[in-house]
């Protein structure tokens, strides 16, 4: 049995290294693939086969993808020289990319028409979890295929959930991301108001991290706000695109969600305000500028 992993970026690198351990244990043959030679060095150093040519992966029983966006996934799978041109019935594609629900169902349908099984398995967790093999992985596709893939997923995640048919993994991830984005928007709007009216930023932050209004977002990001740290590998612009994917579904299904719509407007203000390349909590700077305050700890310069 042969496995290939395509896309060794911030998250894919750690995932690929964990999956590759199966070759060392004699479970399967492994091939690492990336368009850029740099990430392949860590695999070469450990004795694993590598390639920059996607076509070299097409003899694999299972091909795993972790790619930046829908356009690249489409090109890799359905493009003129994509995987589908070379694969045969019975091979399986497992996609960890975070892309749109509608887009992934279209790709899955194309694969199914050729006899290729496709699982959408978006991931949740930061880079450290990808290296530790403790990601959450939400999966959509045929349950029978999921069951055959799960032992491989267990090498990369500590929470592996089968959510339903094709698209169910992406839909779950979209809902999770939108819930996180709503939480970020809430403290980003409210903390500057509190500071404007005389509250101490650190004490207010302590309340939002510990009291009933706390969330994963506030516990993780309020300390960064207080320190003036807005750098991160995942930009506010990309976070907004996650909500666009959800909105696309809501329009199609004619479902009104006022809270999500309001959150999108907050993100739009931050994008227009020059925060698109920073992490999502950078939207607080739009409201800081509007109210002429800084939500920072004492002594911040």
UniProtKB/TrEMBL annotation:
Pfam families: NAD_binding_11 (PF14833), NAD_binding_2 (PF03446). GO terms for molecular function: NAD binding; NADP binding; oxidoreductase activity, acting on the CH-OH group of donors, NAD or NADP as acceptor. InterPro entries: 6-PGluconate_DH-like_C_sf, 6PGD_dom2, 6PGDH_NADP-bd, HIBADH-like_NADP-bd, HIBADH-related, NAD(P)-bd_dom_sf. Residues 167-287 form the 3-hydroxyisobutyrate dehydrogenase-like NAD-binding domain. Residues 3-164 form the 6-phosphogluconate dehydrogenase NADP-binding domain. Keywords: NAD, Oxidoreductase. The active site is at residue 173. Signal peptide: none annotated. Belongs to the HIBADH-related family. This is 2-hydroxymethylglutarate dehydrogenase. The lineage of its organism: Bacteria, Bacillati, Bacillota, Bacilli, Bacillales.
């Amino acid at each position: 049995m042969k496995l290939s992993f395509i896309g060794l970026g911030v998250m894919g690198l750690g995932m690929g290294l964990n999956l590759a351990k199966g070759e060392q244990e004699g479970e399967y043959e492994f091939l690492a693939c990336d368009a850029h030679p740099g990430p392949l060095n860590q695999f070469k150093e450990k004795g694993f086969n590598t390639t920059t040519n996607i076509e070299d992966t097409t003899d694999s029983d299972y091909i795993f993808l972790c790619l930046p966006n829908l356009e690249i996934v489409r090109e890799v799978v359905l493009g003129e020289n994509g995987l589908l041109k070379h694969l045969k019935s019975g091979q399986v594609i497992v996609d960890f990319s975070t892309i749109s629900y509608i887009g992934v169902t279209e790709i899955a349908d194309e694969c199914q028409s050729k006899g290729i099984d496709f699982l959408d398995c978006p991931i949740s967790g930061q880079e450290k979890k990808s290296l530790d093999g403790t990601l959450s992985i939400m999966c959509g596709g045929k349950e029978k295929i999921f069951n055959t893939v799960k032992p491989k997923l267990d090498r990369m995640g500590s929470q592996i959930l089968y959510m339903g048919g094709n698209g169910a993994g992406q839909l779950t991830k979209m809902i999770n991301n939108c819930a996180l984005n709503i939480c970020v928007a809430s403290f980003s709007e409210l903390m500057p108001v509190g500071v404007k009216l005389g509250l101490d930023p650190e004490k207010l932050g302590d309340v939002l991290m510990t009291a009933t209004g706390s969330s994963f977002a506030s516990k993780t990001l309020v300390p960064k706000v207080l320190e003036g740290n807005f750098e991160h590998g995942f930009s506010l612009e990309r976070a907004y695109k996650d909500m666009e994917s959800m909105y696309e579904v809501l329009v199609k299904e004619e479902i009104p969600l006022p809270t999500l719509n309001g959150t999108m407007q907050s993100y739009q203000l931050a994008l227009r305000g020059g925060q698109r390349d920073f992490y999502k909590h950078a939207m607080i700077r739009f409201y800081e500028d509007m109210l002429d305050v800084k939500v920072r700890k004492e002594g911040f310069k």
